[in-house]
Each structure stands twice: as C-alpha cells, then as structure tokens.
Write a structure and sequence with these properties.
The complex is a heterodimer of chains A (about 350) and B (about 550).
Chain A lengths: L10 E10 L2 E11 L4 E5 L6 H9 L6 E6 L2 E5 L2 E2 L7 E4 L11 H6 L7 H14 L15 H13 L5 E5 L7 H18 L2 E6 L2 H7 L2 E6 L2 E6 L1 H6 L4 H6 L4 E7 L4 E4 L2 E4 L11 E6 L4 E3 L6 E9 L3 E7 L5 E7 L9 E6 L6 E3 L1
Helix pairs in contact in A: 3-4, 4-5, 5-6
Chain B lengths: L1 E2 L10 H22 L7 H8 L2 H32 E2 L3 H7 L8 H12 L4 H10 L14 H26 L2 H9 L4 H30 L2 H6 L4 H11 L3 H30 L13 E2 L2 H37 L2 H34 L3 H10 L7 H27 L11 H25 L3 H9 L4 H30 L2 H6 L7 H10 L3 H28 L6
Parallel strand pairs in B: 2-3
Helix pairs in contact in B: 1-12, 1-14, 1-15, 1-16, 3-4, 3-7, 3-9, 3-13, 5-7, 5-13, 7-9, 7-13, 8-9, 9-12, 11-12, 12-16, 13-22, 14-17, 14-19, 16-17, 17-19, 19-22, 21-22
Classes of the chains: A alpha+beta (about 350), B mainly alpha (about 550).
Chain lengths: ~350, ~550
C-alpha cells in the first residue's frame, strides 16, 4: 500500500464513533500511525479499545468519522470494506487457531492462493522466525500458550499485511513470558516492517512494545503520545493516575514559578495559564522525592514495600498528606522513623482543583 | 464490499421464524397431551381412577425409588473406585462399566427370565443338585416389581457412573489434598468432600436414569407390573379411549417435569462447584489384598450381571437358533430397522444443525426458548409421544380423507398416522435433543474469534462455513448421527404403537417373540441391537478418557 516515505500516514482514524445499538462505545476518536510504527491503545477493560481495533479490522461499522488506509477510505458511515478485503493481519486474545489444521496449515491459511512452492517457503521461513520449525506437522492443542501465540502471529504475518492488529496478545501469559514475547514480537514486526496497533490494559506491555501510546477512557482518547510524554507530561488527571505511580498534592500558585504545598514552596516551570492564588493539584512521582539524610525537610515512614533494587516508601507529611518516594534498597528505614527528603523537580504537572 | 445495516428496521428473519415454527411443531405431541387435562373426565377415566390408577401411581413411584437407590449405589461406588483408586483391572472397568448401556432393559428382562424361571438352567440345576421338586423350595420371582427394579438398575446405573466419574475427575485434586492436610482420610475425604462436591453431577445422572426408568415399557409389560406406561398402552388399545390415555399421559408428565426441574437445577449447581482451575495428575489410592479384591468384586458385579451374563446367554441362544432365525424375514427386519434409524438420524441431525445455527446467528430470547422447547423431547416417554402424535395425526387424516371424499370421491385413508411419517416424526420429537446437544457442543468449540480470524485472512463468510465450521464439526455431526441411530434402533413403545400395519423392526420382533415365550428365537434380533448399541458406548468411553484434566 503506502511507500515508506509516503506523505500520507498508513493508518488514519478520523473522528470515529462506534455504537452497539443505542449505546455509544467509542466517541470522537482520532489518531494516526506512520508506516512501520507500533501504536498502542491502553485502557481498562470496557473502555472501548477492542472496539476501535475491530472497527479498524472491519468487523464493526462506524456511525461517524472515517478510517483510511494509506489515504483510502475503508470505513465511513453506512459503508465499510469487508474484513477479508482489508489485508489486515489480526492476532486474537485467545489466538483462535484452527484446531483442525496443522501448525503449518494454520500459517498457510492466509496465503492459500499462492503457488505451493512459494507458500511452503514462506511457511518454513515464518516457522523459523518464531522458533517453531520442529512443530510444523503438529496441531495447535499440542503447543503451550506461548507457542500458540507465536503461531497466531506467524499466521497473521504470512500474507505480509500492511497493518497488524493485536488484541491483548499476551494477557493469558505469566509476567516473564509476557515480557520475553513482547520483545520478540516487536523484533519480528520491525524485521517485517509491519505497522501495528496493539490493544492492552497492561502499561508495561505497552511501554515494551509501542512507539506511540493512546490512553483510552470511557470510549474517548485521553492522550496520544510517547511513553515518556504520558509519564512526565500527562494531559489529564485520568492519565496522571493511570500511568505510573504518584500522588496529587494540594497546592496554591504563588507566582509564575512557585507553588506552595505541604512539602513547602516548590520551584519549577509550569503552564503560564496558571495564575496567582489558583488552587491546584501537583503531580508528585515517587522519583521526584529523593531521600537525603542531610536534608532539613523530614517526613515519617508510614508504609514501605520492598521491590528488590529499591523501596517504595509511603511518607506522611505533618499536614497529614501522603507522598511516595523511591529509595535505593540499602536505605532500610523502619515504619514510624522520620527521614530526610528533598525534591527533584523542574517541570511541574498541575491540574486545577 | 457490503452495505452495513443502517437504522433499526428489519424484515422478519426467515431463520428465526423457521426455528420457532419447528419448535412449535415438535411440541405438538406434548401440547396435545396437556390439552386433554382440561377436557372433562370421561367414563373410562372415572373407571381407571376407581380401580387401577392407584396401582399405576404406586408402582411407578416404587419403581423410581428402587431404581434410584440401585443406580445411585452402583454408579457412585464404581465411579469412585475407578477414578480415585488403583486396583487390578481398573483400566478395563473404567470403560467396560459403560457396556450395560448397550443393553435395552426389555432385552435384559427376558434374558433373565429365561435364565431364572422354573424351566431355566438355574432352577433346573438346583433341582437336579438337591433333588428338590416343584413347590418344595422358595425361589425369588423375577417377574415382579422387585425384578423390574433390578433389571432397570442394571442397565441404567451407567448414567450415574458416567456423570459421577466425570465429576470426580474434574474435582481439583487440591481440595482433596487440603482435606488430607486437615486430617481427612480416604473415607472421610469421600463422604465429606468429594461426594458433596459431586452431588450436582450425581443428581443429574440420577434424574436421567429415572427418566429412562419411568419411560420403560418393555420390562414392566413383560413382568406384568402395572405402571403409567403399561396403563397408557392398555387404555389406548384395550379400552380404546384416546382421551383417557392422554389424560393418563398428562399425569405421568407431571412426574417427568419434576425430574426435568431436578436435572436442570442440579446442572446449574454443578457450575458453581468448581473451586480451583488447577489440575494435576490424580494420585490414586493404591488398594492391596482384600481391599483390592473387594473393589474388583464391586466393579465386576454390575458389569457381570448387567452385560456379560445376559449377552453371553443371548449369544448361546442366537447360535443355537441361527439355522431357523437367519432367514429372509430376518434380513427384512434388519433392513427396516437400519433404514428407519438412518432416516430418523439424518432428519434429527439436519434439524439439530438448523436449530443450533439459528441460535448461534440470532441468539434472541425467543430463539433460545424455541431451541430449549425442541430439546425437551428426551424427557418425554415414548408412550406419551406416541399418544400425542397419533391423536392430532388421526384427526388431520380424517379431515383430509373426508374432504377428498366429498370433493373428488377418493378415499386417502391414513396418510400420516398409518405410515412411517408418524413414526419418523415421533423419533424426531424424542431424539432431537440428542443431536441438538451434540451439534451445539461442536458449535460451541468454534469461538466467534475463529470466524473473525478466517475473515481477516481473506475468507468470505460463506466459505467460513465450508472451510472452518464444517471440518471442525465433522466429528460432532457423525457422533450425533450415530447416537440417534442407536437410540432409534433400541426404541420400543413408540415403535409398537405407531408402526404401520405389518411393519416390523428388530426391537418389535424381539419383544413379540419374547412375549410369546419364544425367548431363544428372539435372541438373534436382540443380539443385533446390543452389538450395534456397543458402538456409541465405545465412542463415549474413548471421549471421556481423553477429556481428562491434568493428563495433558
């Protein structure tokens, strides 16, 4: 479809709305992906992220807006290109391997029109790529969950789709396997130069796999950006709470670079829209608060969780407010102890109260 | 490229209409029977109520109680031993205990009569050995209510065994191990943990066995025990009163409904009884010495008396009479039986496929309810269905005949009630549930994502059916065909009532010969039925050993 240097994005989702009967599941949602990028829709279950994926695949019609592949409309209100003509690869949460076909036949399913020799070459190439060369004649039920996932991926890749859709692809796996597979799948997609959209509720998975992440909430896209931007520059309270850890600390704006909070007066740059005496909440990430024995500012340890390399301390401030602090694990302080802290912030993320 | 549906206006869906129509037609016999509840009681009914009705109810209740106890003990004990213990012969018993399912109750009944009555080998042997003569000794009368209870228990315990065994195997071994850490030994573990957990499954199996017991006609008729089924038969043919027979059938159906409710309720309970999703290889209790011997004996008894002994006797008889019975008449019987069973099975599977797909494609409340109604027939005794088929069919026949005679001066006779149409219809009503269940289970394995995956790989919808659904379902469809086929082959009461004049099947012939005290001659037909009946039993036992959690 699109050439690598095409000026038109490979996938454009343009102000779409999707309804099931009278219920609107996805509302005014837009994003686009350039050729070769991996995007991710991140959100809790029921937020509509899978519906967006199914709309892109052509299983759900849109009632407003458009979906375009390389500039060509594939979905608009009242019309929708059928899934089998979209040349979109899809990997399902439950893999949906065909139980009556061998592994090799499953992978060959999407390229069954090709000449036998070409088809077989492609199948064995893909079996090697996903590391399952020995299982070609086996059946899906003989494979473990991780192996089935690799077959599902190989089957979707086989027809060389321009766009790949992955619906919660690792949700049924344990944490270690999930990380390993996420890296593998990313490498394979890169190797094949495939643009992909991933849907997940797991932010680590999103961070591992995706170049761009969209946080969805109640059928709407809250923010679209890189993992770094979502963590450090969340655009809404929802994104601030949803991505990473942290607390929102009450404060009052003093001037264009100072905010007064329970942690004292904090210096930093922030949005010029905030003015003197505005009541705000300031986002404090655990890594913004540094443990420093020499610091005059003290806070009481109310709770702690050992995480191997570091402790996550919950600190109670004299005002009663609580903040989180990430401290290297050789600083082992007892609950009830008062420890010195200082702030390491230059950009302040604030929300109006 | 397709036009997606815009707006909410839709034409009546032909598929949905079809499913509901089929369900209504299939419900006709039961509706007919219930229609007679509201008719004023006739002369015959009052006569019945004054004389034999009490016996029908009492005998039926006693029969259910006795068969309930018998199947419960036989089924649960053998299931526990086979799934939780290790003793010599366990692996054989595991599947062999299902064999009595292949033995229709009426066949085992007259086989034992031949073995145990005055002129039979057992009593003759006793007399020769001890020098007794007639009237000098007591011997239990097989042709009695007690005898019927034993006969039915011997062939119906596999229902309890099957479901109890599945429940024991599905129980996470964790709960039993937790029990052991809390000090519960093998016996305590069985009575306090495993059995209560398996209770819903055991009750479901029990209600299936009781439905069969209630529906039995051949055994109780042969033993001269007056129950609902024999009563309906006698009222219909002896007293010639269709209304009274239907009213009797309606009364009997109230028993059936209690059993249906019991079965549905316990199956629902069963879903909540899965405590843990983790399964491991079952560490069985190793039995040695007298314990192993006792376990062996306990499993051997039902197998020996429920299958080996009667099948052996049938074989002896069949070989002895082979010269006379294997003639052209017998071949015609086989042809009739196989043709009828094949036609009924094809019909039931096609309708089952239609209904199951209707439910999958248009799973509205109405369609689901219609499918449920169509599947209710398995609980309705053959005698009741026969009465419920014959009454409306005869009415239609008479109307057509009268109209044709008035308009064209041609008598059409009995177009429906006197032909195979009535029989095929009755079989479909009774056995659609069997095919429906199997087909639905097969369809259930095809998750909607499978359809989506195929389409995203470039397959148009109509080819999804051919390339994905049909291959995955092939096994289920064949199983459904086979199950209905064998059930029809074994069916007796509906066939007896509805068969066209002079049309005989293996089951009818075997029963008629046995009723005429020509036991040995009936063996060839009976043995044929048993042998064909073994095939689905083998399928069943293979599928349950394969579907065992924790065994890969």
């Amino acid at each position: 479809m699109a050439k690598p240097d095409s000026p038109v994005p490979l996938l454009e989702v343009d102000h779409i709305r999707v309804r099931y009967g009278d219920q609107t599941v996805v509302e005014d949602l837009s994003f686009h992906l350039e050729q070769g990028r991996i995007g991710c829709l991140l959100g809790l279950s029921g937020c509509g992220k899978t519906t967006v994926l199914r709309a892109i695949a052509g299983f759900e019609p849109v009632s407003e807006g458009e979906i375009r592949f390389a500039g060509q409309v594939v979905s608009r209100p009242g019309w929708s290109l059928v899934p089998e003509q979209r040349q979109v690869g899809m990997v399902f949460q439950d893999f949906a391997l065909f139980p009556h076909l061998t592994i090799a036949d499953n992978i060959a399913f999407g390229i069954r029109q090709q000449a036998a020799s070409r088809r077989e070459a492609r199948v064995s190439e893909l079996l090697e790529l996903v590391g399952l060369g020995a299982y070609a004649r086996g059946y899906p039920h003989q494979l473990s969950g991780g192996q089935q996932q690799r077959v599902a991926l190989a089957r979707a890749i086989a027809p060389r789709p321009a766009l790949m859709l992955l619906d919660e692809p690792f949700s049924s796996m344990d944490k270690d396997l999930r990380e390993q597979l996420a890296r593998e799948v990313r490498a394979i997609l890169r190797h094949e130069g495939i643009t992909a959209v991933l849907v997940t509720h797991d932010q680590l998975e999103a961070f591992l796999m995706a170049d761009e992440i969209g946080v969805m909430h109640a059928g709407r896209l809250e923010q679209w950006g890189s993992a770094y931007a979502l963590y450090h520059e969340p655009g809404s309270r929802f994104v601030a709470n949803f991505i990473g850890e942290g607390v929102l600390l009450r404060g009052t704006v003093l001037n264009d670079h100072q905010v007064e909070t329970a942690l004292g007066i904090i210096d930093g740059n922030f949005d010029a829209a905030f003015g003197h005496n505005d009541d705000v909440d300031v986002l404090m990430r655990p890594d913004d608060i540094i443990h420093d024995d020499d610091s005059p500012m003290l806070a009481e340890v109310c709770d702690k969780a050992f995480r191997g390399a570091d402790f996550l301390y919950t600190l109670c401030l004299p005002s009663g407010a609580r903040v989180l602090s990430l401290v290297p694990s050789h600083h082992d302080h007892a609950i009830g102890e008062r420890i010195g802290i200082r702030l390491d912030l230059d950009h302040l993320v604030m929300f109006r109260r | 490229m397709t036009q997606s549906l815009v707006g909410s206006f839709r034409l009546p869906n032909p598929w949905r209409t079809g499913v509901i129509l089929v369900a209504l037609v299939l419900a006709l016999p039961v509706l007919t029977v219930f229609g007679f509840v509201f008719q004023p009681a006739g002369e015959v009914w009052r006569h019945l109520a004054d004389t034999v009705l009490k016996d029908y109810v009492l005998n039926s209740v006693l029969l259910l109680l006795g068969v309930g106890l018998g199947t419960l003990f036989g089924g649960v004990s053998s299931a526990w031993l086979c799934s939780m213990c290790q003793f010599p012969g366990r692996r054989v018993f595991e599947w062999a205990l299902l064999l009595p399912m292949a033995m229709p109750a009426y066949i085992i009944a007259y086989t034992y009569t031949g073995l145990l009555d005055f002129a039979g080998p057992v009593q003759t042997g006793l007399r020769d050995w001890f020098g007794w003569s007639y009237g000098e000794y007591w011997f239990p009368e097989i042709r009695s209510l007690g005898g019927a209870i034993v006969m039915l228990s011997l062939v119906l315990y596999p229902y309890v065994y099957l479901l109890a065994r599945a429940a024991f195997l599905e129980q996470s071994i964790c709960v039993l191990e937790v029990g052991r850490t809390l000090g519960a030994g093998a016996w305590t573990g069985f009575f306090r943990i495993a059995l209560p957990l398996a209770r819903p499954a055991v009750i479901a199996g029990l209600s299936l066995a009781l439905m069969e017991a209630l529906a039995d006609y051949g055994t109780v008729e042969y033993f001269g025990v007056a129950t609902f089924t024999t009563g309906i038969f006698r009222t219909w043919f002896g007293l010639g009163d269709a209304a009274a027979a239907a009213q009797l059938a309606a009364l009997m159906m109230s028993f059936v409904f209690i059993l249906i409710v019991l079965e549905r309720w316990s199956r629902r309970q069963a879903r909540y009884h899965h405590t843990s999703g983790r399964y491991r290889h079952l560490p069985r209790y190793q039995l040695r010495g007298w314990r192993a011997l006792a376990a062996f004996g306990l499993c051997l008894l039902p197998l020996l008396f429920g299958f080996l002994l009667p099948a052996g006797q049938l074989l002896v008889w069949a070989v002895r009479t082979a010269g006379e019975t294997l003639d052209a008449e017998f071949l015609r019987l086989v042809w009739h039986s196989l043709g009828l069973a094949g036609a009924a099975a094809t019909l039931a599977v096609l309708l089952g496929l239609f209904m199951a797909y209707g439910k999958r494609l248009h799973g509205s409340y109405g369609v689901a309810a219609a499918v449920r109604v169509a599947g209710m027939g398995y609980a309705v005794p053959g005698t009741v269905i026969a009465v419920g088929v014959l009454i409306p069919f005869a009415w239609i026949d008479n109307r057509i005949d009268a109209w044709m005679r008035d308009s064209f001066d041609i008598s059409t006779g009995l177009l429906l009630s006197g032909t195979l149409v009535a029989l095929l219809f009755a079989y479909t009503v009774r056995f659609l549930a069997v095919s429906l269940q199997t087909v639905e289970a097969g369809l259930g394995k095809i998750k909607p994502n499978m359809d989506d995956a195929a389409r995203s790989l470039g397959l148009p919808p109509n080819q999804v059916l051919a390339r994905i659904h049909m291959p995955i379902m092939r096994g289920s469809l064949l199983t459904a065909l086979l199950l209905v086929f064998v059930d029809v082959l074994k069916e007796l009461p509906a066939t007896l009532i509805l068969r066209p004049f002079n049309f005989n099947t293996l089951a009818v012939r075997a029963f008629e010969l046995a009723s005429d005290e020509r036991l040995a001659e009936s063996a060839t037909a009976a043995l044929t039925i048993v042998l064909v009946g073994i095939i689905p039993v083998i399928l069943l036992s293979r599928s349950i050993t394969r579907a065992r959690p924790g065994h890969g």
